[in-house]
Design a protein that fits this description.
By secondary structure, this protein is mainly alpha-helical. It is 79% helix and 0% strand. The radius of gyration is 26 Å and the shape is globular. It starts with a helix and ends with a helix. 40% of the residues are buried.
Length: 487
């Protein structure tokens, strides 16, 4: 049977189409395998009606996505979900999903699909899907349930990514109000809503409002962090003092006082009341062993949520201060983050690359190129070693280093880095992904600086087409593409 089908599919176009139609009709079951086969054959037949029929059933979509994600990816790309979604397909999918009834036990999985669409920059499809999930959440769950807040936040983040700030803001606000009412202060879901709303205000230039929300999150996450890693914080503070790095040790002084004033460190003497020399002898021995155990536990997954949340909060507030021109405050936060991450993770860990990159960006912003360059180079080297060739994280590192060289007028060094970043993103990301447009704009701007307008123009046009398809009218990225094209 396999040989007959193979030979038929290699025959003339009419025979091939006939066989594919037979296959598409043959696999009519509701199991994931049959759905995958029907989807695959419909793509080959260019049969958008059948694709919309399959994907328009939320339960079928979920079954297919759970076991054959790549097939769903191919189908959505073919329909143009990552670029220009045909209006008829989007409307048909939305109408079909509106008819789907599910139980409350399905909501988590359905929400995961919306997050996946967000990550893939399938913004049109992602919004339509997440709008339905939110509708279902409000029907299936009691008013004020924290899971409704999660659905609100998911949909708002999609609107946010599209630049639809006026649609995102009330959803973020409602999510925060529900989370505050239903959950204790400092709960991760409350902090998520605070973070999201603060980021929206930051994008709108409402810095004072954003800062107060970021500060609230950082206070919550800071307390959770030092409670999870008391030995690391105390040991790091002591090591910096021994190295006469009082400038950095001072950043940790309040943390150490909080730790000493609270519960005793596990298995340790009360160093809050010990003589200094006794505390030093202890720190040189047992504390570092205990700190290493905490670091190993983190690498095994313990307290990873506390670490991620704290790191994100430090980064968010530091980036806000950088945007406001408050460079000293931003530098202190970035230094704190770098010290903690370096103590928690082994040399060469990708998280170290992230904080190096952030510090480099701060120095670049201040025109301190000679300080920024080795940080960017180290971050890129870490990412090349930590990720497989062609990973988008490598593209990000290349892009950052290239932007520094571009600012310095070192165009011959910047160009191959921008080109490599663009090649990686084209290969790794879905067609029409906004990051591809970013790379196109960067390379086009580089060519314009060298008066190479013929090389720049097609890149500008492609970037504009991607942004116009993926983002709503008036989005800043569209304005950037238009500006580049006008140069």
């Amino acid at each position: 049977m396999h040989a007959i089908l193979t030979n038929s599919l290699l025959a003339d176009p009419e025979t091939t189409k006939h066989v594919r139609c037979i296959l598409a009709n043959y696999f009519t079951g509701s199991d994931a395998f049959s759905l995958a086969e029907r989807t695959h054959q419909s793509i080959l037949l260019k049969d958008s009606d059948t694709l919309v029929n399959i994907l328009g059933d939320m339960l079928a979509f979920h079954a297919l996505w759970s076991q054959y994600t790549e097939v769903v990816d191919q189908a959505l790309q073919w329909l143009g979900a990552g670029n220009v979604t045909p209006q008829f397909a989007l409307l048909a999918l939305k109408q079909s999903w509106q008819r789907t009834l599910v139980g409350v036990e399905m909501l988590d999985d359905l929400s995961s699909i919306g997050v996946w669409c967000h990550e893939r920059s399938y913004l049109h499809i992602g919004c339509a899907w997440t709008e339905r999930v939110l509708d279902l959440s409000k029907v299936l769950l009691p008013n004020g349930h924290p899971d409704i807040a999660i659905s609100l936040n998911n949909l708002a983040s999609l609107y946010d990514k599209q630049g639809r700030f006026e649609a995102a803001e009330p959803l973020y606000q409602e999510a925060l109000a529900i989370s505050r009412a239903a959950l204790p202060a400092g709960h991760p879901h409350v902090d998520l809503s605070l973070d999201s709303l603060a980021n929206l205000y930051q994008q709108q230039g409402r810095y004072d409002t954003a800062e107060s929300l970021y500060q609230e999150v950082l206070t919550n996450r800071h307390a959770a962090f030092i409670a999870a890693f008391p030995n690391i914080v105390t040991g790091l503070h002591h090591a910096l003092q021994q190295q006469d790095r009082e400038d950095l040790a001072e950043l940790l002084s309040q943390d150490v006082l909080a730790i000493r004033g609270g519960a005793l460190l596990a298995g340790q003497p009360n160093i809050a009341t010990s003589p200094n020399n006794q505390a030093s002898q202890y720190n040189d021995q047992g504390l570092y062993d205990a700190a290493e155990q905490e670091a190993l536990a983190l690498r095994d997954g313990a307290h990873i949520a506390e670490f991620k949340s704290f790191g994100r909060s430090l980064n968010n507030l530091a980036c806000l201060h950088q945007q406001q021109g408050r460079y000293d405050e931003a530098e202190s936060l970035f230094q704190y983050a770098r010290m903690c991450i370096s103590a928690l993770f082994p040399a060469g860990h990708p998280r170290i690359a992230t904080v190096l990159n952030n510090q480099a960006g701060l120095h670049q912003k201040q025109g301190r190129f000679e300080v920024a360059e080795p940080l960017y180079q180290e971050a890129l080297a870490i990412r090349r070693a930590a990720f497989p060739a062609g990973h988008p994280e490598i593209a990000a590192g290349l892009n950052n280093l290239a932007s520094l060289y571009s600012d310095q007028g070192r165009y011959d060094v910047a160009e191959p880095l921008y080109q490599e970043a663009l090649a990686i993103r084209r290969a790794a990301l879905s067609a029409g992904h906004p990051n591809i447009a970013t790379s196109l704009n960067n390379l086009a701007y580089l060519y314009q600086q060298q008066d190479r307008y013929d090389a720049a123009e097609p890149l500008c046009q492609e970037a504009l087409a991607i942004n116009r398809a993926a983002l709503p009218a008036g989005h800043p990225e569209i304005a950037t593409s238009l500006d580049n094209l006008a140069c």
